[in-house]
Design goal:
48% helix, 8% strand, two-stranded antiparallel ribbon, 531 residues, nucleotide-binding, P-loop_NTPase, G_CP_dom, single chain, alpha/beta, globular
């Protein structure tokens, strides 16, 4: 009889493995300054229990009998939000009153002599105070704060990018720019260095007509916001030699858009790869020169005040330093919401796939620096969901900010699509007939989410295991068509009366421009097929 094999499982082995893992974690903590080595993941939806544990970790407290004091909780009791028009107006007024309190976290001041533990503790404390400030806003029953990024390590990536860059480019979706714009980010860049600037890069601008681009250009010029129109998808297609195949399929729409391209003004033209690189490098070099000039002026002022203590050799050294005004390699950083095209833009500018690209938000985990030439370097930042008031969760899913594949409620985002895309356009593109409104209902009402999902699933033969139309699968495909441009839509800038010399709230003041307003039905169908 052979001997039995030694059993390697059981309570004893589990305890030994746990002891070994604990020793490795302690060793890793000493190497990383006391921080746990966790994979960098975006945290937007956090449960109440996770809120308590996370805050305890941020404050460095352990909840036990030795330390029974609980920190101030970030949990806010749920309140019922009425949808009456008067309460909506009251909520908008309250949002305008507290808009200055809706900020992004700042990195506390530091100096090279600080240890890793001191810097980590200082950043955690500043981030905790920022979270408590937003929790105070959530306690206001008239305000509804949308989901936002709650992972400190993700914000640390943004801090590093902003400190490195000479020019910060905020990539936004051209179909709804104000939804993706973060005004406080521009203010934070100015706090880091008054000479630095931010610029809006309106991606997917090829989905807009020339008239809509001109209206947005007029609005941004009045607001004194630098902007450029761009399409990463079109630039990538040109790099992959797909432009010839697109031009060979002659169509009235392609010829019309070609004529528009030739007649476009410089400020509303959709830039190509070389043009965008030239604009970015030109502006970044101008910022770099202004920074060096400001430093030299400060040095001259300091030397003039203490010239009596300087030797002649020091004066010659001063003269040698002051003549150096040639800019070194400038850095351009790309920031913004997830899934707006930051990595796709960088890949198009470089001419190859250097950063990972996917339709799921949050692909980029760490900031990356990519050298274009001896005088230009690009920096890609992970996407961040900035805190805001006016956006609902359904709108954020429909906009691609939150992952489509992880949504629990599929009818809410589909209702956003159904309210923005006309009934006739949905029927023409998908080739089905939506149920007509009842006689007692408004005949011009938008289709409901249930009507759209059932019609789509039945026309495609998508049936769930219960024998009913598979609404979950249908909702994911419709939302992807909505994001990719197959279902065309765009927003117009706010009216003149709503501006009043200051920036306005985002979505409530925007006017939706449906495709049938500026696009004929044939144009919408042809453009959707091209996309």
């Amino acid at each position: 009889m052979g001997r039995k094999a030694k059993v390697t499982t059981g309570p004893g082995q589990a305890l030994i493995k746990r002891h070994v893992h604990a020793a490795n974690d302690r060793k890793q903590g000493m190497m990383t300054g006391g921080r746990e080595s966790k994979p960098l993941e975006s945290l937007i939806d956090v449960r109440d229990l996770d809120e308590v544990m996370e805050q305890a970790e941020l404050t460095g407290r352990i909840l036990s009998s030795v330390n029974p004091l609980l920190p101030e909780l970030l949990i806010t009791p749920e309140t019922d939000i009425d949808t009456l028009e008067d309460q909506k107006e009251e909520r908008r007024a309250e949002e305008a009153l507290h808009r200055s309190s809706l900020t992004i976290p700042r990195r506390p001041k530091w100096h090279p002599t600080m240890s890793t533990q001191q810097l980590d503790l200082q950043e955690r404390q500043a981030f905790l105070n920022w979270r408590r400030g937003l929790a105070a806003l959530e306690n206001n029953e008239k305000l509804v704060l949308t989901p936002f990024e709650k992972n400190l390590d993700i914000w640390r990536q943004l801090w590093r990018v902003l400190e490195r860059c000479d020019l910060v480019v905020m990539v936004v979706d051209a179909r709804n720019p104000l939804f993706y714009q973060c005004p406080d980010l521009e203010a934070y860049v100015k706090e880091i260095d008054p000479n630095r600037k931010t610029m809006l890069l309106l991606n997917k601008a090829d989905l807009l007509t020339r008239d809509v681009r001109r209206k947005w250009a007029t609005y941004f010029k009045k607001q004194r916001i630098s902007f450029l129109f761009w399409s990463a998808k079109a630039a990538t297609a040109l790099l992959e030699d797909k432009a010839q195949s697109l031009q060979s399929a002659a169509s009235p729409v392609s010829e019309e858009r070609k004529e528009e391209r030739e007649s476009d003004d410089e400020e509303i033209a959709v830039l190509g790869r070389e043009e965008l690189l030239h604009h970015l490098q030109q502006q970044a070099e101008a910022i770099s020169v202004s920074q060096k000039t400001a430093v030299q002026v400060s040095i001259h002022h300091h030397l003039d005040t203490e010239r009596s203590n300087l030797t002649s050799g020091d004066e010659e050294g001063e003269n040698g330093v002051s003549t150096s005004t040639a800019p070194a390699r400038v850095v351009v950083g790309f920031v913004g919401y997830p899934n707006v095209g930051k990595s796709s833009t960088i890949n198009a500018l470089i001419g190859g796939k250097k950063t990972g690209v996917t339709s799921t938000p949050g692909k980029t985990k760490h900031f990356q620096t990519l050298i274009i030439s001896d005088s230009l370097m690009l920096c890609d930042c992970p996407g961040l969901v900035f805190p805001s008031f006016t956006s609902s969760r359904s709108e954020m899913v429909a906009a691609g900010v939150l992952p489509i594949d992880r949504m629990m409620d599929h009818r809410g985002p589909i209702q956003v699509v159904a309210s923005q895309i006309p009934r006739e356009t949905l029927e023409s593109i998908y080739g089905f007939k939506l149920p007509t409104p009842k006689p007692y209902e408004p005949q011009n009402r938008s289709p409901t989410a249930a009507e759209l999902l059932r019609a789509y699933a039945q026309s495609r033969g998508q049936v769930s295991s219960s024998g009913l139309p598979d609404e979950t699968r249908a909702s994911r495909q419709i939302l992807k068509d909505y994001l990719n441009g197959k279902l065309l839509y765009c927003y117009l800038p706010p009216n003149e009366e709503e501006i009043n010399g200051s920036r306005v709230p985002r979505s409530p003041s925007l006017q939706l421009l449906r495709p049938t307003t500026n696009f004929s039905q044939a144009q919408a169908l042809e453009l959707s097929r091209d996309k």
